[in-house]
Give the backbone structure.
Amino acid sequence: MRENLAKRKAKKNLAPRSAALASLRLCEKNGEEKSEEKIIFIINPFDMNYIITEEETHLEEPIPNYHSEISINELSTILVDIFYKIHVEYGPGLLESVYERIICYELSLMEIPFESQVGIPLVHKGQNMDLGFRADIIVDNRIIIEIKSVENIAPVHLKQLLTYLKISNKKLGLLVNFNSETIKAGITRIVNGL
């Protein structure tokens, strides 16, 4: 019960931020030494569990100018945060193309390089076989985002994304089903030799 109350409080009072973006802000109190405030709400991109503490916090805004030196896992964390915010605001039921446009808009606000609806050719034994697939979004030429708005993710969706990663020689893919009750249940990480 106390955990549910903390979750509701965190959702109501704070815009959640991911662990990679969350930094503790030092604040002065009446000219005394600076003290640290603890993080209330973190999304862990690896197991998608929520970590909540009872103390309040002030989290800094996302990185204003994207730096491509950040790791692929940190970039993944930023993306998970974007998906979470979109799902909280709009919930399930929109078209995949609408979710895609919102994600692209958020990426552009954060100055993160991306391409949408990118055609990827398949090269077989040195021969270009033309279009192998069309990626929904490729972020920083490192992560493929495949967007779904379906009742259930089928095993073939996971296999398709893994094939896309192999064809394009990318290391990480995020399969996001916005038609799930919680975004935690809707995000699947697919790794290609990471």
